[in-house]
Amino acid sequence: MGATETVRTPPVSRVLEAQSAGPTVPRMMLGAQLRRLREHQNISREVAGEAIRASQSKISRLEWGRHSFKMRDVADLLTLYGVTDEAERATLLALAEQSNTSGWWQPYNDVVPAWMQAYLGAEQAASVIRCFEPQAVPDLLQTPDYARAAIRLTHPGADSEEIDRRVTLRMKRRQTLHRQRGPQLWAVIDEAALRRPVGGSGTMRAQLQHLLEICQLPQVTVQIMSFLAGGHAAARGPVTIVRLPGGQLPDMVYLEQLASSLYPDKPAEIEYYWDVMNRLVVAAESPDATRTILQRILEET
Questions:
Q1: Which of 87, 160, 211, 232 has a Cα at 20 to 30 A from 62?
Q2: Could you give the CA distance from residue 26 to residue 265 in angstroms, rounded to a whole number?
Q3: Residue 221: which of 135, 131, 136, 282 has the closest Cα?
Q4: Does 282 lie in the same domain as 162?
């Protein structure tokens, strides 16, 4: 039995509809299918790399959706993997073409580092976003004034025009929570992030009030990691997990650092971070307590 008879390309209509999310999801979907085809034929990454005049590390990046695709390379890989059905090839080549389109963030390319682009595409296409923030309010839940103050802290040399562009980009990202088919956001925020007066007391009070309002949305769940919880599973830094629609793609783990990010992508690593996130949810105060805690912090601010 041939590869094209047992390793079928999953439906891509949702992906092809979600062009506003940019090239990230098509790249991930095409890469995942190419990986399945390669593994079904028992072909090593080294052999696949030789077929497209590249290294095995490039094959790995392609299969995880971290690199753009050349149409010639995709065609050569499909031939190597025994994909002869014209409809199958046309579907995968169409994904390759879409994977090379510009991302929705292109107008802000000067303030979007390369290491963040994959996450921005996944964030806008997500069905579920789970995150933990120990030091700041999550980006998608920030007010413009809070965002401006936070961005100034991390980009002290930026002029006012650059700061404005970074704030505008962050506010555009926030709109995903209000789309008809937007993601379910489940955020755990450390109490320290809510008591640290970023931008001053007035900005912080407005931010807390915004959290009170937005956590009433059915698609938004906020939990607070109380000081009383003591140590916890993610004390060393923020964690974000993105689940994409359709059930065909692996979850994306995104670990943002000061000037870079990590995307752990091995199945065991993804499972580990899900375990971390689940333990955080158990350790944090319940969602039902969030309003009461926010009101108390607001009164004390």
A1: 87
A2: 17
A3: 131
A4: yes
